Every structure is written in structure tokens, then in C-alpha cells.
Amino acid sequence: MTRHARNCTAGAVYTYHEKKKDAEASGYGTQNQRVGKDSVKNFDCCCLTLQPCRDPVVTSEGYLFDKEAILEYIVRKKNEISRKTKEYEKQKKKEESELAELAAAEKASKLNSFVKSENNIVSSPRDVFKKENGNDGPSVSNMAGGKAKHLPSFWIPSKTPEARKTKVEKPDKNVLCPMTGKPLKLKDLIDVKFTEVKDPDDKKSHLVKENRYMCAVTHDVLSNAVPCAVLRPTGDVVTMECVEKLIKKDWIHPLTNEKLTEKDIIPLQRGGTGYSKTNENLEGKHERPVLQA
Questions:
Q1: Long-range contacts of residues 41-46, Cβ cutoff 8 Å, at least 24 apart
Q2: CA–CA distance from 247 to each of 7, 205, 282 (Å)?
Q3: FRET partner for 101 with CA separation of 20 to 30 A, picked from 36, 78, 116, 204?
Q4: Mean pLDDT of successive 10-residue stretches along the chain, which has 293 residues
């Protein structure tokens, strides 16, 4: 009887942990690893630059962007769409001209074949098996009549097949959001107003501080572990606890006394932590070749 130990190899069952250990050592199989806290962006960082926003704006889905970064993204995408549209129109005109040339060539070939058939009509029958000019009649070879020049040949560069050009698809004229893939318009971006934490004893720089912002109503410190939302009319950031306990009672803005609706509350998409699940993208995958038995 063998001793039960951590490295016991006498078991009849190939356990999950042994399989995982062998997969890591062999270099086969997909590796999954939970994302740590250092790999997730903070709730007040731009989704493009991954840096704290200087002039934050938010989409209707709750994704935060720096205004300068998202404007640059929209301009670059519009230039790309314009370039692709010109390429598509150029390709379309070229295809139309090629079709017109093919139609003209087909019409000319039909005319030539008709003229040739009219010229071949004779009044007296011909003996096709009779020798003419020292030849044994018409040749059945595919190399006769100068056809050898038109046959494909792999050793002549001009006769080798060419790769077809990639066909340009008609581009979508809408600029898509880099996070959701939905159409994004500049007028749909909402300015966000964060309330800074004012601590006279903290002499650190604003970017170095861990607790930079707080709820505009309850003054609770905001972080990735605290769900928060943006109020559309003013752009103030409040906690979801404030929304559930205060705002949803009377549906009145606590700072301006304006009437609010469900669409005026935009949950802010935040990064997760390595210890609690706050969003769906907290696991990294590295796909590698699979060793099949």
C-alpha cells in the first residue's frame, strides 16, 4: 500500500489538477487565468487611453471616455470610412467599364463568327480529305494555328496565374463604439462631472491619490468596488445605493430638484477587482494547440 501524499503517482485516476499541471508543462491546451487587480482599469479611466480622464464623457451604455481621445477616434474613423468609400466607388466604376468591354467584345465575336460562316458557304462540295499544299488536311492538334502562344505555361512568368485582387466591400457609414460595436454619435456623449474628495491633510497629487472622487449627494468615496451611476441632466456621479434609496423614491434630482426618469440614470461601467466579480471580463484566455489522443 503506497503512502498518500501530494505527489503520489500510484493512483488509478488521472485527476483534474494533474491534467492541468501536465498541460502547463507540455505547452498544449487553453490556459485560463483570473485577471488581477493591477490588470483592470479604474472606474474613472478612459476606455481608450486607460488613463484618468481630464474631460470625461460617457455613452448611453455607461462607458467612460476622455473627450479628446474619443473625438480623435471619431475623426480617424470618419477619414477611414471616407477612404474606403472612395476605393469602393473606384472599384465599382472599374467593374462597370470591364462589363462594358466584355459586352462589346462578345458582340464583336458574334459578328466575326457570322461573317466567317457566311464566307465558308461554297457552291460546290469540297473534299476535306484531299491533300492541299502538301498537307494531309486540317490538323487536329491543339498546337496548330498559333495556339501554342495562347496556352498557359507555368515556366513563363507572363503565363503564370495571378492572384485576384481583394474585393472591397461597401463600408458602413456609421462610426461604431470601440467597446460595444454600436453606432456612436458625438451628440450622444454626455459630459460627466466628478466630485473631488477635499482632504486638506492629503498633500499628494490628484493622479496619485487612491480616493480621488466621492458621491455628489452622500459624499461616499467612489472606487471600483462601489457601483455608481451618472445622472444625465447634470452629469453628476452618485452611488447606486443613493439611486436606490433616495432618487427612486420620488424620482427627483437631489441637487436641482428636477424630475428624473429611468433613462436619466446611466450605470457607469467599471473595472473589476481580482477578488470580487463586478463585470464579465475578469478571465484571460491563451489558446494553444490541443494534443489529441
A1: 41/271, 42/223, 42/224, 42/270, 42/271, 43/222, 43/223, 43/224, 43/228, 43/268, 43/270, 43/271, 44/194, 44/212, 44/213, 44/222, 45/271, 46/70
A2: 58, 33, 31
A3: 116
A4: 57 79 79 74 87 92 93 95 93 91 90 79 58 55 63 62 77 90 91 87 72 90 89 93 91 91 91 54 75 59
Check if the beta carbon of residue 278 is closer than 8 Å to that of residue 225.
Answer: yes
Nearest by Cα to 273 from 38, 34, 37: 37
φ, ψ for residue 32, nearest 5 deg: -115, 135
Matching residue, cell 474606403: 84
The set of cell numbers assigned to 270 is: 467599471
C-alpha cell at 25: 508543462
Cell of 99: 462589363
Output Rg (C-alpha) for the chain, integer angstroms.
Answer: 37
Which residues in 81-106 are b (16+ Cβ under 10 Å) and which e?
eeebeeeeeebeeeeeeeeeeeeeee
C-alpha to C-alpha distance for 216 and 195, rounded to whole angstroms: 6
- Smallest CA-to-CA distance from 248 within 236, 226, 268, 265 is with 265
Rounded distance between C-alpha atoms, residue 260 and residue 235, angstroms: 13
Q: Residues for the chain: how many in total?
A: 293
Mention every residue, 6+ apart, whose C-beta is less than 8 A from residue 122: none
Strand order in the sheet with 56-58: 64-66, 56-58, 190-191
